[in-house]
Amino acid sequence: AHTKAHISTIARAMRTLGCHTDQLMRQSPAMSLRSRHPNHVWQADVSTCVLFWLSNGGIEICDVAAFNKNKPSNYERVKELRVQRYLVVDHCTGAYYLHYLPGHETAINLLDFLIPAFHQRNGRPFYGVPKILMVDPGSAQASGVFRSLERALDMQVIVHEAGNPRAKGAVESLHNHIERQFEGRLHAQQVRDFAHLNALADIWSAVHQSTAVHSRTGRTRYAGWMEINGTEHLRIAPGIEITRALVTADPVARVVSGTMTITFSVPGHGQRTYSVAGVPGAAPKEKLFVVSSPYALPDIDVLASDTAGVETRHRLSPIAVDEWNFDKSGAVIGEEFKRHADTWIDTERKTAQRTAWGSDDKREIAKTRKGKGGQRGVAFGGAVDTFADVRQVQVPTYIPVQGTAIEVATPIAAESLMSATTACLRMQALLGDDWQPAHYSWLTTKFAGGIGEQQFQQLAATWKAAIAGDGETTSATGTHGQERPAC
Q1: CB neighbours (10 Å) of residue 301?
Q2: pTM of full prediction above 0.90
Q3: Pairing verdict, β 300-305 and 311-316
Q4: Predicted confidence band at 52 (pLDDT cuts at 50, 70, 90)?
């Protein structure tokens, strides 16, 4: 038989099994977070003040009846007149800075709030630049500002996971306290403008942070923050205007010179020269990205990324110069010799040279290339076939194309003639002691217009044969019809 269970019985069983909807909708347990010291971690947040809006130049209390849940159009009408409550809290001590600005949550408003928060205000405690700034992910339009803050102020910005307000519990709970304890007082106070509102907020927050004991630390918020180690943990911002210039400026690319230096114009200090020897990625003709250092002007920071893509900063001071504006660290001519340490390109070059030639010494490489016994040395000892890729290509066989021959006249080479005098001198050298004046007379008469080389050789051979024969002294016709004088 089928038994019908009551809905409450099913609900109890689901709770026992841990699958009740109430249980499934609960958040996972939160891990307790801690910070190391004052100004280690700040938490920043902005909240729209639903109780106030700007009307006729002043701040007025919102009429709850006019803006109840059934009349959202009334609230939409004054959306441009909303007031934003900006709050930043030191996670360690609970010290905070409160400021109100008009309009929406914008990048400009964020800068107008954070930059003064970094600087001391009216002698109040709680200022400086933290190592870490935690923000929520709702400031999409301000993401560029956060990146600029990281670069310019050497400050890590952590954007917590969406839908997890507990990550910034200190600032979230303080919003509620300010709404009840400070903004609740404004029902009986006429607020003229934002300057008046922020002045009241400064007075109230100073008293609150000087008198109310923090439940965790057992101290007032200001007393706790005053225990900061100024030497190690209090990083002083360089001034509101300079900080704004640093935050809004993008990193500037600079090309490294042949002497391993770069030039950079520092706000308030003019253009200076910096040595980048030893900076990762620095080499002649290479680009480096540079920003001003906010805590030690006119120092600068060179931005470099490691193999994991994490951006690191390398702080450089300007080059010290003498009275003639020479680099004091430069080598004095005729007295000393200095060289830069190898750059990463130098290291790679030497590695390539050792692989190819067995040495990175220029003179050794030159000897190897010159070789011995006229045999020139080659890279890698000839083990690398530089035509391997060429040999692998199969060249197709092409069918000859039928063409038309061009008819041209074959030029006739005209034999050059030597003079009779030259022929006599050469013949005298050939015949030696057998040379006679009759030879000279016969040659100059017979070949007054010159004689060709082939004809000269034939005549010489005929005379030599005749001299070597019976020695008859008759005038006869030589070989090939050449006459010879009586010998």
Answers
A1: 22
A2: no
A3: antiparallel
A4: low
Which 8-state DSSP code applies to residue 312? E
- What are the angstrom distances between the C-alpha of 479 and each of 210, 261, 435, 459? 140, 91, 19, 8
Smallest CA-to-CA distance from 58 within 190, 186, 184 is with: 190
**Amino acid at site 147:** R
Helices (H), 358-436: 362-370, 388-391, 420-431
Give CB contacts under 8 A, 24+ apart, made by 267-270.
267/242, 267/292, 267/297, 268/242, 268/297, 268/298, 269/297, 269/298
Model pLDDT, residue 79: 57
CB 117 within 8 A of CB 111: no
Query: What tokens appear for 221 in the block?
Result: 């918020």
Handedness of CA 372, 373, 376, 377 (dihedral sign): negative
Q: How many CB atoms lie within 10 A of CB 122?
A: 8
Q: What is the DSSP string of 141-169?
A: GGHHHHHHHHHHHT-EEEEPPTT-GGGGH
Burial tier of 143 (Cβ tally within 10 Å: 0-12, 13-18, 19+): middle
* Cβ atoms of 341 and 277 closer than 8 Å: yes
Each residue of 204-249: pLDDT tens digit? 999 999 999 998 889 999 999 999 998 889 999 888 888 887 776 6
Whose CA is closest to 158, among 171, 169, 168, 172? Answer: 168
| Mean predicted lDDT score pLDDT of the chain | 78
